[in-house]
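Quick start: load a record and inspect it. Here is histidine kinase:
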Amino acid sequence: MRGIFIRIYLAFMVTSLVATLVTLLLAMYYRQWSNDSVNLIAPTGGYISAAELILQRGGEPLLLEWLLTFERHPSVNAYVFDDQGISLLPHVPADVLEYAFASDSYQARVNPLGQTEILVKAPLQSHDGRVYLLVVEFLHPLAVFNLPAYLGWGFLASLLLFAIWGFVLSRYMARPLLSLQRSVRAFADGQWPVRIAPKLLRRRDEIGELGREFGQMAERLQRLISDQRQLLRDVSHELRSPLARTAVALELARLDAVPEQEEYLDRIELETQRLNELIEDLLGMARLETVQDHSHWQSVNCAALLQQVVADARFERPQNVLQLNLPMDAVWVQGDARLLTSAFENIIRNALLHTASGTSVDIDLLCRRGQVRISIRDHGPGVPEHLLADLLRPFVRSEQARERSPDSLSSGHRGFGLGLAIADRVIRHHRGNLQLSNHAQGGLVVTIQLPQESSEDD
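Running the structure step on this input writes:
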């Protein structure tokens, strides 16, 4: 949600700053699109009359004193040249000199884009008949002060103003989305019924409509999930009850069975046991799909968990070799120890089943960049590349798994194509991921990645 807040905020900022820049540019050149520059020529008649009166009454000294008073005027300058073309003031800008001695008679020069916006000249006659030339310079308003400083301070002031205003508006627009995000996250974590802020539901815009539609969708999904859970409970009861009766009948049948019938009774017991395990797996997988309750999670030492699973596997299958490589320190993750144990057992038993005779199953545990990485490799025939992704789906097995011997069926392995599917759902339930790949030297590699518990939580 931070992304949309930043986008809205930047949109306000860019729009505001562009508007500010355009406004400043228009302020710089506004006279280019108006008649103000021409209207400024009119007041020069007063300057001309005053200069000529001062020249006639006080001569050049009094006129020079009058010219010096323009130094206190920020936007107007005046210059006087005698009949020899010599300026009474020591420093005269080049554009004023060029205009004063130009052959364009006494016409005003208007340049709204330059520093000198208007130049006006007129003859002055002294009491002794000498002719002087008066040049009045009107400076552009933005040339009176420091233009870079004007732009810089104006831009900075606009940046601060619109930064605060844009933050307020962006927060106002993003707040209902943040509230809706919290409701969606709570719903995804299994906190039902979903609660949406009443203020958001009362909105009459698209965000309010989105909140109302999400609420309706959440209610429908909640009903569907509740119905599914009820169906699972009913199916579990309806299937397990006849299976329990079958087990009782089987034991009664053994009492009167002849030796030739024992083989068939053992087969019935095996299939009944496998059917019970299948039901348990299906129910467990369904629970992982529908329940996202993490309130009971605790710190789990992955290294100790793998050691226990490997010890159990060695006890069950002493003829197989398991190589376990662990780091020196404990490796902690947040999760459900029972579910993680089930996932590791499914993967390791699957590897033991398919590894070639006389080879080992290699298990490596590493920690890197805040991730716990567990690699489990067998030395079996591997899996065709096009089947790797499908193996994580329920009831999907490779051809080698479909052709197991009767000994492998009676060894305790379920063989329904649910082991990897359940393990994948357990790992995803713990915010991790599970990947399958073929090793370059043969065999299947199952790679598990889980987020490592931070040191602050240890």
